[in-house]
Amino acid sequence: MTEVLFNGLAGRLEGRYHQSDKPGAPIALILHPHPQYGGTMNNKVVYTLFSCFEKLGFSVLRFNFRSVGRSQGEFEDGPGELSDATIALDWLQSVNPEARQCWIAGYSFGAWIGLQLLMRRPDINNFIAVSPPANEKDFSFLAPCPTSGLIIQGGADEIVSPQSVATLARRLNTQRSVDVDFALLEEADHMYNNHLVDLFKITGNYVIEAVKKKAPQKKRRGRRKKIEMQEEEPLMLEDDSQENDADNFDDMSEE
After folding, report:
1. If both were cysteines, with which of 89, 108, 232, 237 could 33 make a disulfide (CB 3.0 to 4.6 Å apart)?
2. Per-residue pLDDT tens for 190-243?
């Protein structure tokens, strides 16, 4: 994993990047929760998503929104952070011009930003939204939702209402040509304490199946074989001790 810096509209943005060794590997951008409640790219849920995509052979980037960590600028509660995500995706695509697929994944505030980015970028093939704050933010812009995806929600979430997220998922599934899966971890709180492995497995299994469906026809046989080999091995989180900045994970009280 490599530390990266790239220029945003409000100044430098700080990120962590994993480059796949597979030619044409798909790419994924991971967005962190609310900066004003301690959200950073080192959040445990964000790192779980990052690790999952890395293990599945993606080139993957997570980064700090403006005003967080070494990223410059001031918090804007939406517009500025959407600009940051747009530039981060541009950077990720610039270093992976042959990528076969493009994914966006976000947690809480990051899910809200990620779904807005989804509406502006037809090159995004699929999404993962973890605990999208449907009880606080307006998601009416998803009309129609341009691609299928997965929404994950904790049933014991004390910040994001599980009912509001389930309603959002049902609404999106009324649209034609879109299939939005909804996974409820009934005992998980907002931070997914004691449920990060469950989050990893749900995300990984969804990504594996979605990559199969979107694999180019002429490469389908070889790609399918590789994916099936991955499915035979249980998805497991890496030991945090292997991660250089694992000790910096946030113990966040809200977002």
Report:
1. 108
2. 999 999 999 999 999 999 999 988 765 443 344 433 333 333 343 343 444 333
pLDDT digits (tens, 9 = 90+) for 57-85: 999 999 999 999 999 999 999 999 999 99
The conformational region for residue 129 under phi > 0 = left, psi -120 to 50 = alpha, else beta, is beta
* Model pTM score: 0.85
Q: Which two tokens stand for residue 162?
A: 């599980």
Task: Write the pLDDT tens digit of every residue in 28-41.
Answer: 999 999 999 999 99
Q: Are 88 and 63 in contact (CB under 8 A)?
A: yes
Q: What are 113's two structure tokens?
A: 């930003």
Q: What is the 3-state secondary structure (H, E, C) of the chain?
A: CEEEEEEECCEEEEEEEECCCCCCCCEEEEECCCHHHCCCCCCHHHHHHHHHHHHCCCEEEEECCCCCCCCCCCCCCCHHHHHHHHHHHHHHHHCCCCCCCEEEEEECHHHHHHHHHHHHCCCCCEEEEECCCCCCCCCCCCCCCCCCEEEEEECCCCCCCHHHHHHHHHHHCCCCCCCEEEEEECCCCCCCCCCHHHHHHHHHHHHHHHHHHHCCHHHHHHHHHHHHHHHHCCCCCCCHHHCCCHHHCCCCCCC
Question: What phi, psi does 28 have (nearest 5°)?
Answer: -145, 140
